[in-house]
Design a protein that fits this description.
With 411 residues, the protein is an alpha/beta fold. Helix 1 crosses helix 9, helix 8 runs parallel beside helix 10 and helix 8 packs across helix 12. The protein is globular, with a radius of gyration of 21 Å. It binds nicotinamide-adenine-dinucleotide (NAD) and sulfoquinovose-uridine-C1,5'-diphosphate.
């Protein structure tokens, strides 16, 4: 199949592009390198030495004999180029990763909130609009999040996107309807993913677009079969307080001898998936597209759930690391239960990798190998969901506490 991967230079995007290429698909990456620019803004870089995108695609060709094309393009602002690319390539599928994906970064300041909303909602809407205008019959596969459901305890396992409800009528009768599961975002980033969902419903109903929305849990791990093939193909590994996700942070912290940073009591329960399963699930979704008449197809792309303090204990047992319970910078329930359904992707043939299959050790070994690249000052979380106005001394000590104009919105 001919596939465009938008956001193909990122943590999930690069392994997906190489995985699809390895499986015989013709892949074109689109990216505006915003993630690399944010690394510069925060002065917080990937623990692993990722190469420039040009070097990556060249190394992929030298290693495998397969080519991956690349276009520098901002999906949120370069609408005409995006539409022209779709018209020219007529892709069978488009994978959409191109969003600002860190919840803490999205809560850092007003400028970061506005950038996240502007970038994510515009990128998604531009893509939908361009698919219609270009009259391309592509299957759109979007990376959504389990966070659209919220993290409050529910009696029933979270369904895959939809809920059947009974609406009481005036005469005591009931009307049955299938609705999107009520959205309950926990950050501005998660809010943009709930907005994406409505855009997908509209474009599927109005224009017959074929769409799969993958509600993904927290991705852990770093390397895949493909990124492992050559040092120049190595995937990124974020560990800083904004972009580092919890399990990779814990494994990396253990690798560099830092206490594990558990927020609050560590009572939050979340859903997890290994990066190797991310790429497999996306390929399965692409290779078995839905019909437009099915409505938007939603799968929960997550393997298992785990409570944060239990994960910390697991990592501590594996590595001997100590655990540091810290004041929670986020606004989230102290404890929640989480159960979910994930039959959709399993029905397509997915056999998930679990936390217990030995891959945690591989991640820790990578963290240890690149420990010399770690800047310990980037580990603490500096983005707060609610915070009092900073005093002058605090503002002087922490530049992120003062009003800030996001580079993408300057001028
Ligand atoms: P990432 O930041 O590493 O990658 C996103 C890529 O998109 C980057 O290369 C960035 O430069 C690019 N991009 C952003 N805005 C763009 C724009 N306007 N135009 C073109 N390119 C743009 O993030 P990731 O971890 O790879 O996540 C990818 C997607 O998967 C996101 O949408 C995220 O919400 C979703 N997701 C990620 C996780 C996770 O744990 N990493 C979990 C669930 C869902
Ligand atoms: N946490 C800690 N210590 C840390 C970091 C995080 O205790 O050092 C806690 C957080 O308070 C939170 C949980 O761990 O309760 C998860 O935090 P996270 O940063 O690993 O994940 P999150 O902010 O939810 O976001 C990540 C991705 C996002 C994706 C989401 C999937 O960055 O793109 O959408 O996971 S989900 O969590 O299912 O919504």
């Amino acid at each position: 199949m001919r596939i465009i991967v938008i956001g193909g230079d990122g943590f999930c995007g690069w392994p997906t592009a190489t995985h699809l290429s390895a499986h015989g698909h013709e892949v074109t990456i689109v990216d505006n390198l915003a993630r690399r620019a944010i690394s510069e803004e925060l002065d917080a870089h990937s623990l692993t030495p990722i190469r420039p995108l040009g070097t990556r695609v060249q190394a992929w060709e030298e290693t495998t004999g397969r080519t991956i094309a690349y276009h520098y393009l901002d999906a949120a602002t370069d609408y005409d180029q995006l539409r022209a690319l779709l018209t020219r390539l007529q892709p069978d599928a488009v994978v959409h990763f191109a969003e600002q994906r860190a919840a803490p970064y999205s809560m850092k300041s007003s400028a970061h909130k506005r950038y996240t909303v502007a970038n994510n909602t515009a990128a998604t809407h531009n893509l939908l609009c361009a698919l219609v205008e270009a009259e391309v019959d592509s299957h759109l596969v979007h990376l959504g999040t389990m966070g659209v459901y919220g993290y409050t305890t529910t009696a029933a396992p979270l369904p895959e996107g939809y809920l059947t409800v009974q609406i009481p009528g005036p005469e005591g009768e009931t009307e049955e309807r299938e609705i999107l599961y009520p959205a309950n975002p926990g950050s501005i980033y998660h809010l943009t993913k709930t907005q994406d969902q409505l855009a997908f419903q509209f474009y599927n109903a109005n224009d017959g677009l074929r769409i799969t929305d993958l509600h993904q849990g927290i991705v852990w791990g770093t390397q895949t079969e493909e990124t492992h093939l050559d040092g120049r193909l190595i995937n990124r590994f974020d560990y800083d307080g904004d972009f580092g996700t919890v399990l990779n942070r814990f494994l990396m912290q253990a690798g560099v001898g830092h206490p594990l940073t558990v927020h609050g009591s560590g009572g939050q329960t979340r859903a997890f998936i290994h990066i190797r399963d991310t790429v497999r699930c996306i390929r399965l979704a692409i290779e078995t597209p839905p019909e437009a008449a099915e409505g938007v197809r939603i799968f929960n792309q997550a393997t298992e759930t785990g409570r944060i303090r239990d994960l910390a204990q697991k990592v501590s047992k594996l590595t001997g690391a100590t655990i540091d319970f810290q004041a929670n910078p986020r606004k989230e329930a102290a404890e929640n239960e989480l159960r979910m359904r994930n039959e959709g992707l399993r029905t397509l043939g997915w056999e998930p990798i679990t936390l217990d299959n030995g891959l945690m050790e591989e991640v820790r070994a990578i963290a240890e190998r690149y420990a010399h690249r770690c800047d310990l000052s980037k580990i603490p979380a500096h983005s707060f969901w609610t915070r009092p106005k900073p005093t002058e001394e605090e503002a002087a000590a922490d530049p992120t506490a003062v009003p800030f104009t996001h580079p993408a919105q300057a001028g």
